[in-house]
Each structure stands twice: as C-alpha cells, then as structure tokens.
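look at this:
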Amino acid sequence: MMHPVREHHPLALVTWCLILAGLLCQCAATGDPVQQAGNQQVQPDAAVATKLRSGDGAEMVYVPAGEFPMGSTESDVALAMESNAGWTDDWFAGEVPQHSVHLDAYWIDRHLVTNEQFARFIKAGGYEQRAVWTQQGWDWKTAQQRVQPQYWESPPWNEPNRPVIVGWFEAVAYCRWAGARLPSDAEWERAAGWDAEKQEKRVYPWGNEWDPGRANTRESGRQQTTPAGEYCPQGQSPVGACDMAGNVWEWCSSLHMPYPYDPADGREDLEATGTRVLRGGSWLNASVEARTTYRLPPFPGDFILFDPTDGFRCALSER
C-alpha cells in the first residue's frame, strides 16, 4: 500500500498540476490574519511567557519543566483509523506506546522560521560558515553546491512572511547560527499538545476536535503555505506556539527511532545517519497527520525534498 502522504511517483505530476491550477485561480491572501475559529472569537493568551532570541530576534515561548505522556495509546490509534478510511496501523506505529517523559525547561519559537528570517542567515554567509553545519550537512551542501534553499526563487513558497522550505541540514545550520538548536522529538510534542495546567493531552494544539479554521491542512483548501502565524491565536498550542498543526512539516533534531523516547540511546546524535523526525503535518496533508502525536513514518531519500512541505522552528534550553 502506498503511503497516503508523500507522493513520490509519476502521479505526483497530476497532483502538482491540480495544485498549480488552484494557485492561478486563488487570490493572494491579504489583510489581517484570520481571527475566528468556527463561530467563536478567539483572543490571545495574555499568560503566555515570551522572550526574543538574541541571535536573530525571533519570539520564543516558555515551556516549563515536568513530565508528560508522550505518544498515543492503542485506543487513540484505533480512533484515528476509524475516522480515516484506508489508513492502516502501519502509519501510526511510530506514535505508540504512550509513555512518560520528563523534560527540563526550555524555550521554543512561537512561529515557524520564515523566508525573511532565513534571508539574514544567507546574507550573513551562513552557507559558508563551517562551524554551524554538521559534517554530513557540510558534505551535502558542498556536493550540491547549495547556496540557498531549493525553493528560494519559486513563488509562492518564497514570499517573505511564509515559512522557509528547507532540508534538515539547513534547519540545523540556521538554528546554530541563531544561537539555538532544533527541538527534540519530545520537546516538539510537549509544546504542541500538553496542557500542564489541566494535566491534559490534546489531540490538536487547540483541543480535541478538528477545526479547519485553526490550521492550514488539506481540508482547509488553501493549497499552499500560508504566512507564519495566520492561524494564531485560534490554533495555538497550550504554551502559545503557532502553526504546530499544518502549514509545513517541522524538522526535529531526533532520529526516527521506536518508542520509548530516550535521548541517551543515540537518537539525538546530530552526526548519526538516518531519517529525522518530521512533525505537525502540512498544507498538503490530511488533518489526521496534524495530530500532536503523529510522526511522519521514515521515507526513502531522508533529507531530500520531494514537496515544498518541510520547515522548522528552533528551541533553546533554559540553562
């Protein structure tokens, strides 16, 4: 059975033709960001703790230390399969079993890294700064003669306020340049769906019911990326992070390895070979993949971009 998410075959051309046709017919999004989800007016959470990162001025939100239940239960997976005909348990194997994980306090970007932000990295000579690249990343960049992201000159993906589309090596390099790092698999999920105050785990960043007005996924019909933060605050997570469901898949630092999550088992070795975790779903994917527990299954090509769907945000340890 073919993976229902990433289409790496000739039929993908048909998909892209339909998408491009939609782009030609669709008016460019302008004006104020969406402020309503369904019929309910949503207000920003004044209690969200934020700070600006010194490296690049990005706004970050605080995630306190503590334990949270990472992953899904078997009943969670059964419910997701029941609601999505044609999906088998293979596609959900990466999110079980549910287990308890303790994390120290950290900060995570409120928004996805945008093209405007990434342009500063390029202007500062980021593609030539050996110190911010992993060895594999440097070798890849050199072999590819890469001096900018793959979709850097391709509209609409390259608009300044949209999330930058990059591979994992580039995401690592940017975060290092900005004085930060990629979030781990566990840190990403904790920031996306754990309400520490209520001690509740959310299916989606905003709650347990799907709402196309809170995230840019296939159901939303946008057919392309949207400006970072357009679905905020109505789609924000318990800690105030935006776009953690939909828009673009988000790179994590971790290798895609079975649960339970253990940062000491090699999965956080940035120089190790293997597929890295992608989280959150994208504009091209269904809402079932935008759940806070979903991990995109490993796929051939690892760091190669097949679709303009992969972006990132950075994280920073509290101490």
Q: What stands out?
A: The longest strand covers residues 249-255. The mean pLDDT is 86. DSSP finds six helices and 13 strands in the chain. The CA atoms of residues 8 and 306 lie 7 Å apart.
